[in-house]
Amino acid sequence: MSQHIKSIPSQGYIIYEIDGTGKTKEYSRKDFYKICLVTGKNLIEYADRGIQTYGTTLFFGTPHIPYSWEIVTKEQTGYTILFTEQFLKSGNNSESLLQSPFFKIGGTPIFFLKDEQREYIAGIFRKMIAEQNSDYPFKDELLRNCINLIIHEALKLQPSDSYYTQKNASSRITSLFLELLERQFPVVGKENQLAIKSPHDFALHLSVHVNHLNRAVKEITGKSTSSHISERIVAEAKDLLRHTDRPIADIAYSLGFD
Fold this sequence. Notes:
- It is built from 9 helices and 11 strands.
- It is α+β, with helices and mostly antiparallel strands.
- It has 2 domains: 13-156, Jelly Rolls, CATH 2.60.120.280; 169-255, Arc Repressor Mutant, subunit A (Orthogonal Bundle), CATH 1.10.10.
- Strands 2-9-4-7-10 form a 5-stranded antiparallel sheet.
- It comes from Chitinophaga silvatica.
């Protein structure tokens, strides 16, 4: 049974240990980065690629590239840290973290670890959990340094290359496209603007060619990628006009109408 967590705490991060009973924590918000050290059997999929994991895996997740994670066996142990982009940007080393190849489109975010590598990185996670609950005034900077250390350790490793192609790649790509489309809404605040607006933008974030994305979406849904995008934007505009007092110009700007 899953424990539903509505949001990351206001400090912008949460670190927890994965218990061995198969219970997982679910988060309703999706605008966070994730580093996960897990021992167990899982299936991780994104775009038309996926990987089955055995043993210990180090995984880097970003809010900009949707993925699915299926737990195959209940026996799961390890650690996870979730953190927001704002938490990273608050530190002096934020740029190096954000530019890490593991968090960029086209990067390889999955690594298989040997026992000694697992123990070393698990020690960093245990340190972060201890600091999370401490009164140390500079613990946020310390936690950012720990994240950076994990990234640098991963840079020394060989990324997994045991990917397979989904049997129904079109269905998987379409599902991830629709999920990424929904992630854009609601657009909160008049200063914010819709970030991903065109089929080319979505293809870039999904690491597939735009023609491949268009064919897959048309095959599965019967509608073009552009139709899905425009219909969702129009639906959002109607909701904002009905349920908010925001000026029409502000709504138009937020939804990408120049």
